[in-house]
Amino acid sequence: MPLNKDWAKIASHDLIQHLRARTMAGLPHIGVLGTKETYEVDSPSDIEEDEYTQPTDSDEGRAEYPDWKFVPNKMSYQLTIKRVEGSPLVARVVFFIRIKEGCDGDLISVSDDRPEEYCLTPEELLQAFKKYELIVKTTSIFDPPVVQLNIDDEPVQLEPNQVEAKIEPSLQSVTVSLVDHSDVFLYFVESKPKLGKQKFRIKFTRTVRLEKDEIIINGELRNESPKGPRSVIPERKQNASRGLESEKDALLRLLRDDPLLASYSPKMFTFSGLRNFPSGNRYGYLMEVQMEENVVSYQYPYSENDAANTVNCIMDDSALEKATQTYHGKLIFKDYSLFEEEVPQMSPGPSPKQLFSELGLDMNLEAVFEHDLKFSNFYLFQAASIRSIIQAMNKHSELDTVVITARTAGGKTEAFLVPVAQYCLENRDKLGVKALVFYPTKALANDQTNRYIDILYHLNRRLDGRKITLGLLHGDISRMEPEQGSEEEWELPLSCPKCDNGVLHADGNDLKCDTCEEIIDFVKIRHRQLVYSDPPDILITNPDTLIWDLMMRPQNHSIFGRPVVVCKDCGRTYISKGIKRKCDCKSSNVILIHPTIPQFIVFDEVHMFKGTFGINCSFFVSRLQALLRKYSMQYHNESSPKFVRIGSSATISNPREFAEDFFDVKPEDVILVPKDPLEKDSFYLTKDRDETIRRHHVYIMPYAYNTDSTIGRAIYYVQMRSKTGMPPTHLQKKSDVWDQFLQMITFVNSIRASNNLIALTRRTVGGILNDIKIDGHTTDFDKKNRAKVERSFNRGDLHSIFATQTLEVGVDFRRVDVVVINGFPFSFNDYLQRIGRGGRKRDSLVITVCQNWKPIDHYYFSNAKEALRKPSAHIEPVPITRNNIEASKKHIRGALFDYIVSDSDLSFCIDDFRTFKDITAKLSDIENYCITALGKKGVLPNEIIPSLREFVNYIETLSQNELSPNSLYRKFREIINEKYQLTSLRSTDREVIVEVCWTR
Amino acid sequence: MTTTNKSLSYALRSLYPGAFASYQGVVFRVISPEQTALSGISTDNDQTFSIVEKLATPAGKDLMSKAVKKLQKQIQEESGRTIYLNKVRVIVPKKIDLRFDDSLDMIYCSDPNCGTLDKLSYHKFPPKDKMPSCRRCKKARVHQAPVWIPQRLPKARSHALLGDLGTGIIRNMGVRQIFCYYSRIGDKCTNPQSVDGKCVHDFIPKLGSLRMEDPQRPVDSLRRHNTHCPKGLEVPPIKLERLFRTGSHWYKMDFPRESMSVPLQVSAVESYDINEDPEIDEVNEGLEDIKPILFNSEIVDIEKSKFSRMRVLEITYGLRIGNKFTGVSGYYLNGQENEVIGRLTETQGFLLVLKPSFHEAIEKLSKKNDDPDYLMNLKEVAAHSLKHALLVLAPMFTGFEPEKFYGSYDILKPEEGGKVYVYDTDEGGNGGFAALMQDRDTLVKMFKSIQNRLECRTRECKHACKQCLFIKNCGNVNRKLNRKLLLALKVFWPN
Fold it and tell me: Choosing among B385, B458, B469, which should be mutated to test the A contact, i.e. which has the most A CBs within 10 A?
């Protein structure tokens, strides 16, 4: 059954109502102002990130008191207006206080197993709360304001001593003090029952100050009520001889001498049992708090300075309207924010036909986009990217690097894949990798493979003869053909490009759809040897895997354009000076292949190549290019090959500097797409919003409960709302039923948080909705499990997954309805990536639960709406500092092995490490190569050459001391890499082995 | 048994001897069966030797003496004990053993309908790489049950060592509690509804269950009961038995987690220059005109404060178990060698040089000028707060994790002033501070935000709450901080 058209909007409003509902047992999650003592005693100084509860010394030993967290007791705002003469300034404050026992769970309709006489009717439950509405109207700043109070929508006369107004030449100030108390309730002091009332003292202060031609309005609502005890519902004891005691007996037993007994008449007597154990509620808090200011102003009434002075609430300007010269309406201040993200529509560019004929591109490729993928037009930025890459491909042009920045879900992959595919088509007769495409994570590489398969499937269908092939190479792809049922025998979550419903499974070396049985024979992902023996046109990989091939495995250098001998039977590859007569598998069916040099070096999602990983990868790129140049000269007689380097990201603020450092190129050789802010503006239609991205945001920062608890509650409610039509509160009628679980991803910042939340939600949500399936996607789960999770989630068999960074980038699940963010990630880039998982061509709900103890969450709690309107102002630069001496030393040592394995003589000696015993004889050659390989930018050569010399000597000594004919690879893996950690790109720090012992 | 690789800086901060670490959702302890000084840590001899060599140089000796002084002081503050050290032996870890700990042996079924309590040691052949399935329902996996975590009483004078690091002072739920509330050893059943007063002979039906009654209070609402009573007797939810408090601490219940232990660290830093350093010079050129705007020239030596290369000696000498702030701590300096784990790195960062007037300003603000210890403490609080102020927002404005930055400070003689260092923690630098210092707009935005935090505009705290300056990985567990002191010193935004 399809979801309701506006389901996300409805769900977001209902969720807020639910979390804010004053009728919730205990306290609502949001919309609460705490009591004065809470504020003073529970100083927030000791609140810890990982605490479920916040104990105070006073709570110790008093287990009947729940450990409530620090709840602020104040909410205040500031706004600055240019007042339109004569227009009144009206402030309105609304909140509820509890005066009686009662919560949702006490309603007749909810309490199935409780006798009706102990339940409440909806009317009785509503009477447990009083609604306060305070209106302060300023007509003139020089006169006292008019103050009006409504309690439960009835006007109430304020006593003169309750209103204190002060009029000064340019300042009007008014303080309204409200006093009230609750009905009598039962509580325990040191295990003794007692009756009492909760006092309420509430103060609202508003000042209107004239400064030059501006008026600054400050409003502050403060709850000064004392902290009250938690109420308890009396319990009727069961006696073996006399049975269940009467209500009267129970009261007399507990409170015989209490003077307030006469005025105590609780409705909800309960009985001892598993379900209705005595519980109570919290008094003294203000609930569902909201403040408003009605203004008519010549200027937008809320500045950055106002935001800095707004405490514990967010401004909502959805009820403010803009006329020709003025703004009129109201600004609302509350502790949550609900809004629909307005993602600007991408400007449409030329149609495939126009673009392809303009650039003279292949007709088949055009047909794929126009007819198969139904592109009516490319986006303007895609067209600009394609033109730029084609310009960079021109051998006579100095330009060789293109960096594309466009928002998530913009179609960046297509933007670089068109020219790459065009090049592959033009060179279809040549064997070899034409484009090396790097992704920062395996999950992302796996997922993006789907998109490549989709485009190449349609393209290959239109081709006669050799197909354009695609390969995938990373740590999860097994080296040789995996045995059935082994750990290595796992499958990627690839969907069928033909039927779109089926999943592709291995069928020999090909892939086969489990639904339509289509055979996909152009994809080489079954094992790595498929890639080396028949290099695909496009190779998707990552630097962590390729660095091993680069340094240690010359027989795999077919992907870099080195001729190798291939066994047609088993797929093994060998470097050879001529034809090797027999393979190790005893087969004589061997051939020599001459693959081409890769033309494209593509790094997708470049913003993830930051920090030490980025630094190491930048050196890796330099080394890779040096090797490709060497092979080009050695085997292809081309002294200065041209590589086209492409970087793409949604979120990078310094693309030119990044490209200069990362690819080690001259800044003038870099083409940026967009080239300047003006072009960037032209890529988006600012007036139109992108209808394909409909994200409804909910921002909350709970104080009364920890964020995990609120997330558990939110997940529970949203799933119940969808599956059963659960209303936000039981006072409302059942909503329409969508009869399905929503597909939900919850992002957390640590594995620990993920595990905690999985356990928590399995216990809570899973306890009620038995069919719901919850799982995790973090590095705590092995690759088989993670792939299974991805597959199950895509199929809809899994409804809710908890993930860390592993899932945040580029992973396109078919359907993600809800994205929950547990606390802001450290980078706004990461946040954009996380929310980008939802709302792709369908509605989605994004629930951001801010953690109140973190500065970053406070910052974005107040600024998120603005940040999402102008994300470019908030994204961080991606720094690459090539002057890192440790990284330079690591890579100059690594480059020695690049030299060895690419050398036409030395590469044949790697099977016997003893042959390197006089390697210092080649020191000057080595130095020349290694210094060039590290690129132009970075640490000066004289600083790292000593390290290289020392390392070469070390290798020589090691070789001289070697007695048995061990291979270089073995020596490297067991000794050299252990000591120098040359293959570790994620950190410049040494790696430490952590061994986990499960048995004690 | 599984092997993973972690970077040294991660290992130093998270996996020190006695620390709790989680793997596949299970919390383990860094410990080994052999009783060694640094239990659970195997030494990387090459690296350790290389550090010894570097520390034998004049610059290295300076660093070591700086670190040892800090170490002595911090141990005294932590434990109340005075120790005399000439030097410590810095060990670089090669392998770290994570083992299951006795105090985390209690388990319960993750299925909320089952929740059976049990002990892992009662399982005869548990799987070696994951938690076993519940013995009663045989469906769901078990999780570690809550543990009691020590909390220092406010009366206790210091965070002193309360027990042997190896045995651990996190307590399990009592073994008695894993059985049904009414069952006793033998076949007795004390449930009043039981007619014959007998329980079953089988072990598993006697096991009680753990259930969370209220998801909003996950720990508080944990109750023990038995929905599986073979006789179908009603066993109401019963509160878990609370551990008794001791003279110095009480126990708080929580689920096992990595953060039950935090490292106690000291770091000694020195900045140095090399002859040709174009990238460092480029950053400093960009900083030239912004420094007088950001820093008060009366306190800060604008000229000497700069982006620089730094040499850092980081030492993890102990741990605090329990709550980060009120837990109890221990350190593992013993024997002749005084072995500690640590590392010596070369990195990049920002050096803030304080003028001698810093001392005068503190003395002016102080009420007890005649007490040199009090004055010294105040200076340390100011420098430490300054370090935290520079570090606290760096992750947010660079997009790097908080572990990627760290800092240190030196209080020099009154005529020399002081130094505050903040740096990238990755060996050689990760570019975090370099990027921040080069991006003028971001730098201004960050310092504005720092000032806002010091003034605490967005959150009102009556008790000079220092939380605005907390950083996640503070080796001094976020003590010695005072934001109001920084405001009084007017270090930032002089105009």
Answer: B458
Q: Residue A482 is encoded by which pair of tokens? A: 């995996």
Beta bridge partners, B95, equal: A993, B42
Q: Which of B408, B412, B394 lies closest to B347 in space, CA to CA? A: B408
Q: Which residues, numbered 547 to 566 in chain A, qualify as contacts with chain B under a Cβ-Cβ cut-off of 8 Å?
A: none
Structural contact between residues A988 and B426, judged by C-beta atoms closer than 8 angstroms: yes
Would the CB atoms of A43 and B276 count as touching at under 8 Å?
Answer: no
A311 closest CB neighbour out of B400, B439, B460: B460
- What does the DSSP 8-state code read for residue A649? E
Q: From the candidates A860, A992, A1000, which should be mutated to test the interface with B, based on the most B CB atoms within 10 A?
A: A992
How many Cβ atoms from other residues are within 10 Å of residue A475's Cβ?
A: 11
Q: Across the interface, do B5 and A709 touch by the CB < 8 Å criterion? A: no
A791 closest CA partner among A805, A775, A780, A779: A775
**Contact A991/B8, CB-based, under 8 Å?**
yes
**Taking the CA of residue A606 as centre, how many other CA atoms within 13 Å lie in the half-sphere pointing to its CB?**
34
Q: Which residue type is seen at A721?
A: R
Task: Verify whether the Cβ–Cβ distance A615 to B398 is below 8 Å.
Answer: no
Angle, CA B159 vertex, CA B153 and CA B161 arms, to 5°: 110
Beta bridge partners of A114: none
What tokens appear for B124 in the block? 């005869």
Q: CB of A612 within 8 Å of any CB in chain B?
A: yes
Low-confidence ranges of chain A (pLDDT < 70): 1-2, 37-70, 111-113, 270-280, 408-409, 481-491, 493, 578-580, 687, 751-752, 763, 779-783, 805-806, 808-812, 839-840, 870-876, 1000
The answer to whether residues B328 and B150 touch, using CB atoms and an 8 Å cutoff, is yes
Of B447, B449, B486, the residue nearest B466 (C-alpha): B486
Half-sphere exposure of A898 (CA within 13 A, CB side): 35
Q: Which chain A residues are closer than 8 Å to B456 by Cβ?
A: none
Burial of A531 (0-12, 13-18, 19+ CB in 10 A): buried
Bridge partners of A849, per DSSP, are A700, A822
Closest CA relative to residue A800, chosen from A810, A809, A813: A813
Count of CB atoms situated within 10 Å of the CB of A725: 14
Write the pLDDT tens digit of every residue in A277-289. 455 688 999 999 9
Q: Which amino acid is residue A845, in one-letter code? A: L
Put simply, the chain A residues between 871 and 900 with a CB less than 8 A from any chain B CB are 876-877, 879-888
Nearest C-alpha in B relative to A222: B460
Q: Which residues of A touch B308 (CB under 8 A)?
A: none
Q: Which residue shows structure tokens 């091993």?
A: A548
ipTM here: 0.90
Interface check for A942 against chain B (CB to CB < 8 A): the answer is no
pLDDT tens column, A375-422: 999 999 999 999 999 999 998 888 899 999 987 667 889 999 999 999
Q: CA nearest A615: which of A830, A405, A992, A888?
A: A888
Residue A95 is classified by DSSP as E
Contact B101 A1000 (CB under 8 A): yes
Whether residue A610 and residue B15 make contact (CB cut-off 8 A), yes or no, is no
The SS3 call for residue A93 is strand
Interface of A with B in 206-235 (CB under 8 A): none
Of B149, B207, B201, B199, nearest in space to B176 by CA: B207
What's the CA gap between A235 and A279, in Å, rounded?
10
Instruction: For residue B103, give the nearest of B27, B50, B162, B183 by alpha carbon.
Output: B27
Residue of A nearest to B468 (CA): A855
Chain B: residue whose CA lies nearest to A48? B324
What lies within 8 Å, CB to CB, of B341 at 6+ separation is B12, B16, B17, B38, B41, B90, B91, B92, B93, B315, B316
Q: What is the pTM of this model?
A: 0.83
Report the alpha-carbon distance of residue A560 to residue A563 in Å, rounded. Answer: 9
